[in-house]
Amino acid sequence: MLESSLEVTVGAEVRLRFNVVNASGETVELTFRDSGRADFAVYTDDGEEVWRWSDGRMFMQALQYSDLQPGQAATFTESWPDPTPGDYTAEAELRAVDQDVGSRTPFSV
Length: 109
Description:
Elements: E1 2-10, E2 14-22, E3 28-34, E4 38-44, E5 49-52, E6 61-68, E7 73-80, E8 87-94, E9 102-108
Antiparallel strand pairs: 1-2, 2-7, 3-6, 4-5, 4-8, 8-9
């Protein structure tokens, strides 16, 4: 079982830190379709997407595998540059095949 959390730090830019932890007693094998292992997005309170990390990016197209041992964590970080003041919700998702792992958290700039 994978558990996740999303931390947001607001400054000149918004720093996003997505943690995925293997909370089970067994190794979890993660399969990725490309080199983009996690994605981040920011939404307004009315649900409009204002930023997505993967927009306009290209990823190496190759199956990749990664094991998470029991208790092991994988951490992904990105930054949203030049945010406009307001209230938002950040979302992060693991882009592994057959895994529905993601986190959301509200924040203000």
